[in-house]
Design a protein that fits this description.
This protein is of the alpha+beta class and 76 residues long. 34% of the residues lie in helices and 13% in strands. The protein folds into two domains: 1-45, Pemi-like Protein 1, Chain: D (Ribbon); 46-76, no CATH class. The longest helix has 13 residues, at 48-60.
């Protein structure tokens, strides 16, 4: 399990394994949520528009059938 040390300014380095798992890059924003029982979750922050588009993609992706659909909708 990756570990980081908290500085006197309450800052911590995000371990490489976590950065890679979240696909974090310099300048990305991260979001913290405190769960019941004191567990804290960290995730890459996504603004509302990007989350909305990701949700649409999740719903529509099973509908996309392949190359025929790609050709039919390529110029939209």
């Amino acid at each position: 399990m990756p570990v980081s040390t908290l500085t006197s300014k309450y800052q911590a380095t995000i371990p490489r394994a976590v950065r890679e798992a979240l696909a974090l890059a310099h300048g990305d924003r991260i979001e913290f949520s405190v769960e019941p029982g004191g567990e804290v979750r960290v995730r890459k922050f996504m603004d509302a528009e990007r989350e909305y588009l990701r949700a649409i993609e999740t719903v529509l992706s099973p509908e996309w059938l392949g190359e025929d659909d790609e050709k039919a909708y390529r110029d939209l």
